[in-house]
Write a structure and sequence with these properties.
By secondary structure, the protein is mainly beta. The protein contains 1 helix and 10 strands. The chain has one helix at 2-15; strands at 18-23, 32-35, 40-45, 48-53, 67-69, 72-74, 81-83, 89-91, 100-106, 109-116. The N and C termini lie far apart (63 Å).
């Protein structure tokens, strides 16, 4: 039992590590590249590097075939746009954003985290409509027997 727990601990620690993707100069501005071994695409826009999920949550299209438009990654299938800095939906049919991974540049090499950042849950409390006022029983056309 202890042996299994030790393996799980090591596995979790390894999963939180970084994956070497490429050299910093290999990715041109506006280029999108798939990260081997992870469901992640790496892209560069205005000199900054971003790592987002590989597939569009709307229809499963590969975002590596998309384009960078107005600081967003655009899906090639239906034109859904995802913010490069946070993965949030900025336009199109998708209802959910894509996961975002941390990017680290060290000694001229680009690394991407294995696990995505934790996405804060949206608070729907502000969007709730007030409950309608209760109608008197006499105003109803249905009668209880």
């Amino acid at each position: 039992m202890l042996r299994v727990a030790g393996m799980l601990r090591r596995r979790r620690r390894d999963d939180a590590g970084l994956v070497l993707v490429c050299a910093d100069g290999d990715l041109a501005d506006g280029e999108i590249r798939r990260v081997d071994g992870l469901p992640v695409v790496l892209c560069r826009s205005r000199g900054a590097l971003y790592a987002l999920g590989l597939r569009c949550p709307h229809a499963g299209a590969l975002l590596v075939k998309g384009a960078i438009v107005d600081d967003c990654l655009e899906c090639p299938l239906h034109g859904g746009r995802f913010a490069l800095d946070g993965g949030a939906v900025r336009g199109g049919p998708p209802r959910h954003g894509v996961p975002v991974h941390d990017v680290l540049v060290s000694d001229g090499l680009v690394y991407v985290s294995r696990r995505p950042r934790k996405i804060p849950r949206r608070s729907w409390g502000a969007r709730r409509l007030p409950k309608p006022a209760a109608q008197p029983a006499a105003a109803s056309r249905w009668r209880a027997r």
